[in-house]
Design brief:
This protein is 0% helix and 47% strand. The protein is built from no helices and 47 strands. The strands form eight sheets. The chain has a 14-stranded parallel beta sheet with strand order 1-4-7-10-12-14-16-19-22-25-28-31-35-39, with no helix packed on it. Strands 17, 20, 23, 26, 29, 32, 33, 36 and 40 form a nine-stranded mixed beta sheet that branches. A hairpin with a 7-residue loop joins strand 43 and strand 44. The radius of gyration is 30 Å and the shape is elongated.
């Protein structure tokens, strides 16, 4: 049985549990349709590089055939508005060589537990789902499903939800969905994704512009990219590239620990002209490492500072490698791990102290007193500090020269009104 030149195949049978054992040939550059009767066993072997519009009539039309020779696009359109529509995968593999585009109210899940399902690419709108395997009753066990997405290397956007729902249930979320991003293309996620399994980027780029709320660790392998302007609730471990934003300057929010391995590249864009730059907000600890890659627009100058990372938790490590190696002639990059800032400095630039605090002590209004001074030492190349005081806020006199790395000084035996 062939589907060519924009034709379609619609079931003429009205029996449930019918078998569909034919070959489907989806010719290149054609758009075709297939609509079985409900509760069917779809044993078709599918070939070609065209587009196949599959109307899903119900919940248990089992995809049991071999799709490895199909390199086109499967549009899985859920049309059952009463009970929902499931793209039910029961061939143990999935769709390894073709794109899958969800439509309507389609929910993708395997019929069995503990399967790794391959999707050459996945796109679809809000209201569709990528869910877990396993049955809706406890007697079948709770589901564990791994999806490996992206082997075709195409660029795709999925706005649906990746969740832990079990087969046949919209309320039981006791499954565990795990994601592997493979292939050279990008996969952009723009929806809310509460799946609890791990996420591993083994190829291409994973872009998170929505909200990934699950607690499974995210691992970014060397040579791959994690980007986005959304949020990730789980721990993120980067050996590849961390890239805030999605083709434009933005903020990436990470709500657990961030580890930047020695091979990691944090790629940021700074536009000095309009005072915008990429940022990474981290709720938990940061372990710094690797290289900071900067795409700078404007004219860099000594004294420029850009706060890249924000966290109130513990930090460790640092970043000492930069690409490009310098901002320009006679200038250096300096990463300040304590504040998450990237600074541009001249070779002999000395950071000014900050957070100056003065505390005066006296027993009576006319007695001599002491002024205790403290400050934050932001430099590592100062020779000494110069402290001055005055009584009129205009004429200052030299008081002391605290040594390098000092952070306190006490000015004693002062007369009233000394400033």
């Amino acid at each position: 049985m062939g589907l060519v030149n924009g034709l379609g195949l619609v079931a003429m049978l009205t029996r449930i549990y019918e078998n569909y054992p034919m070959h489907l040939y989806v010719a290149d550059s054609t758009v075709n349709g297939f609509e079985p009767y409900r509760l069917a066993n779809i044993l078709c072997r599918v070939h070609g590089n065209g587009t196949l519009n599959y109307a899903i009539p119900y919940l248990r039309e089992l995809i049991q055939g071999d799709w490895s020779d199909f390199t086109g696009t499967l549009v899985a359109n859920g049309t059952n508005t009463t009970d929902g529509s499931i793209l039910m995968i029961d061939n143990g593999v999935g769709f390894p060589s073709n794109r899958v585009v969800t439509a309507g109210n389609t929910k993708i899940c395997p019929y069995s537990n503990n399967k790794t399902i391959y999707l050459g690419g996945l796109a679809g709108p809000s209201g569709t789902m990528l869910s877990c395997g396993g049955q809706k009753t406890i007697s079948f066990g709770f589901g564990y499903t791994t999806y490996s997405v992206g082997a075709m290397g195409t660029d795709e956007t999925f706005a649906g939800s990746i969740n832990n729902q079990l087969y046949g249930s919209s309320t039981n979320t006791d499954g565990e969905t795990t994601i592997i991003k493979e292939g050279n293309g990008l996969w952009r996620l723009t929806g809310t994704n509460p799946y609890n399994g791990t996420t591993t980027v083994t190829g291409g780029k994973l872009i998170v512009n929505g909200s990934n709320t699950g607690n499974g660790k995210v691992t970014v392998n060397d040579g791959t990219i994690l980007a986005g302007k959304g949020s990730i609730s789980a721990e993120v471990d980067v050996a590849g590239t961390l890239e805030p934003g999605d083709s434009s300057i933005n903020t990436f929010t990470l709500k657990d620990k961030l580890t930047l391995q020695s091979t990691a590249i944090t790629s940021i864009e700074i536009n000095k002209t309009n005072s915008t730059w990429d940022k990474v907000n981290v709720t938990s600890n940061i372990v710094y490492g690797g290289t900071l890659k900067i795409n700078f627009t404007g004219t860099p100058a000594s004294g420029d500072i850009y706060k890249i990372f924000t966290t109130t938790a513990a930090i460790s490590g640092t970043i000492t490698q930069f690409d490009p190696a310098t901002p320009g002639p006679g200038l250096l990059w300096k990463f300040k791990q304590a504040t998450g800032e990237l600074a541009i400095q001249s070779p002999n630039f000395v950071e000014t102290p900050t957070s100056l605090v003065l505390n005066a002590t006296t027993s009576t209004i006319t007695s001599k007193s002491t002024v205790n001074c403290s400050w934050a030492d932001n430099a590592n190349n100062e020779l000494y500090y110069i402290l001055e005081r005055c009584t009129d806020s205009v004429n200052f006199v030299d008081v002391a020269h605290p040594v390098a790395n000092s952070i306190t000084y006490s000015d004693t035996a002062l007369l009233p009104s000394t400033k």
